[in-house]
Write a structure and sequence with these properties.
single chain; Arc Repressor Mutant, subunit A; alpha+beta; two-stranded antiparallel sheet; 11-stranded mixed beta sheet; about 500 residues; about 30% strand
């Protein structure tokens, strides 16, 4: 990313990164699955044959609470006949029309598909049992203007298991905090195009990833769900909170629309033509896809700008120009279990640090931030070659000379020769560029597996000499205190250009 910022330093004024949209989901663990509901009803001494009465009582209580909140604040309660109607647009219209600065804006409700728990008779045993079904149930949306987060909403299911979602916007939070501090800024939709104090703004956005979310989210839930504070057998356990969806965005603010327009179409063209599945997987910290999933890319023209999007299994990275002044790189995570982080785990009965899937719980929001930030930086790093005016020979010629490293002299490289190009392709896969590689990893790729110890030692020695050659030319580096190698920025540039030249068709060069 530093190379991209350095290359376009005359165009870029500032950059800011942080969460854009955040969707939290709350579930009541003891009643969120069929077996748990059976145990919960048993602990409350509620027979399964009375489940419908119990569920109706819970549902009616939630609806009465919504009506009471609307009446208490003298706000409208509106039932929508179509769940496809934009609820946010309607709420924003009501907010602007009534001049709501803080507090409840409106309460909306609609029938929507949902995951619900009901009781059915088992054909084999003829006993009643709790089951999970897909059905339509009533959802209630509470839109309000929060003093910190601005316009946001809580979505509550009225039928068991009473799942809840909280939606908020990080850029709205940033704007309100800047207002409170008297910092001047310009805004277009959910994008801030200019900030007079960018350092303070970055600190404000960083608070979202460091915040203790559970108390705040639990407070919102108790306001709309009366059964969290009820007494007796109808009292429900508290919610367990997860991040259902997160959007992390880096905004690069340009001096003018012309300065962004000069390079944006070149960036789009390069991303569309050169970012294949291995590159997209590397951006998103992935090595491979599972099952029959595919890596997809598409280009769309929207009112706010032209957008290119790469996605795989629910996670995506996209680029677009906002308000013709901001270049935004945005990472959306919907399937965290497809991404991996190093964290504490138990392996073979012992505590250790292992590579584990990213969890949905709010306690992993810091790791989610790190993965998203790393994806943005990799994307910008890959785009840093766009607009390079120097010919490729200036990058390749220096490695075509022999070099002295210590007391040993190493031969020159031949970047587009079959031999060295094959070596470049071996160290450039997404897996190695993400996690690094060892001698045995490279040896396995070059020579394959062998059971002969003599052959294995010979192959190991040959691989060591190849690693020393690449290190001498600065294309790879050794990780301190670890027998691990990583590709350097120079290596990314030299080997990437060499491999691209070999892949380029003659007709393109002749044109």
């Amino acid at each position: 990313m530093r190379r991209f910022l350095s290359r376009h330093k005359d165009r870029i004024v500032a950059s800011i990164a942080g969460f854009d949209r955040l969707i939290f989901k709350g579930i009541i663990n003891p009643i969120n699955f069929a077996a748990g509901m059976d145990k919960f009803l048993g602990s409350r001494r509620i027979p399964l044959k009375e489940y419908k009465t119990f569920a109706m009582t819970i549902s009616d209580g939630v609806k009465k609470q919504a009506l009471a909140l609307a009446e208490k604040h003298n706000r409208p309660y509106i039932y929508l006949t179509s769940s496809r109607q934009s609820k946010e647009d309607l709420a924003r219209q009501i907010m602007l029309a009534d001049g709501i600065q803080q507090g409840l804006v409106c309460v909306l409700s609609a029938m929507e598909p949902s995951r619900s728990i009901t009781v059915r008779s088992c054909r084999q045993t003829r006993w009643l049992r709790a089951v999970v079904e897909q059905r339509r149930s009533l959802f209630i949306y509470f839109y309000f203007v929060d003093r910190e987060f601005g316009l946001m909403h809580v979505r509550l299911q009225t039928w068991l298991p009473l799942e809840i979602q909280v939606w908020m916007n990080g850029r709205e939070y940033l704007a309100r905090q800047l207002d409170r501090r008297g910092i001047r800024y310009q805004r277009h939709d959910n994008c801030v195009t200019h900030i007079s104090d960018i350092q303070t703004a970055q600190k404000i956005l960083r608070r979202l990833q460091q915040r203790h979310w559970v108390p705040f989210l639990t407070l919102l839930a108790t306001r709309v769900n009366p059964w969290l504070t009820a007494g007796g057998q109808y009292r429900l356990p508290s919610y367990y909170w997860m991040v259902e969806e997160s959007e992390y965005a880096m905004d690069l603010q340009f001096k003018s629309a012309d300065s962004l327009r000069e390079i944006y179409h070149d960036l789009l063209r390069y991303a569309l033509e050169h970012f294949g599945p291995p590159d997209v997987l590397r951006f998103l910290s992935r090595h491979a896809v599972r099952g029959d999933a595919r890596v997809q890319t598409d280009l769309k023209s929207r009112p706010e700008g032209i957008r290119i999007k790469h996605w795989v299994q629910g996670n995506s990275i996209k680029m677009y120009d906002k308000a013709l002044l901001v270049l935004r790189i945005e990472v959306t995570i919907n399937s965290p279990n497809q991404l991996y982080i190093h964290r504490a785990a138990i392996r073979k009965g012992k505590k250790t640090i292992a590579l584990c899937p990213l969890r949905k719980g709010v306690f992993d929001i810091g790791a989610r931030t790190q993965l998203s930030s790393a994806a943005v930086k990799r994307y910008l790093q890959a785009l840093s070659v766009v607009g390079m005016q120097q010919p490729s020979r200036r990058v390749l010629d220096p490695v075509c000379k022999s070099v002295q490293c210590g007391n040993k002299r190493f031969r020159s490289l031949h970047p587009i020769s079959p031999t060295d190009a094959e070596l470049f392709e071996t160290v450039m896969p997404a897996k190695f560029r993400l996690d690094g590689f060892k001698n045995k990893d490279l040896r396995k790729h070059i020579y394959g597996d062998t059971d002969d110890p003599v052959t294995e030692r010979r192959n190991s020695s040959c691989t060591t000499r190849k690693l020393q050659l690449l290190r001498a030319h600065g294309l790879i580096e050794r990780v301190t205190d670890r027998n691990l190698y990583r590709v350097t920025e120079k290596g990314e540039q030299v080997m990437g250009i060499a491999l691209q030249i070999r892949k380029t068709k003659i007709c393109s060069l002749a044109a």
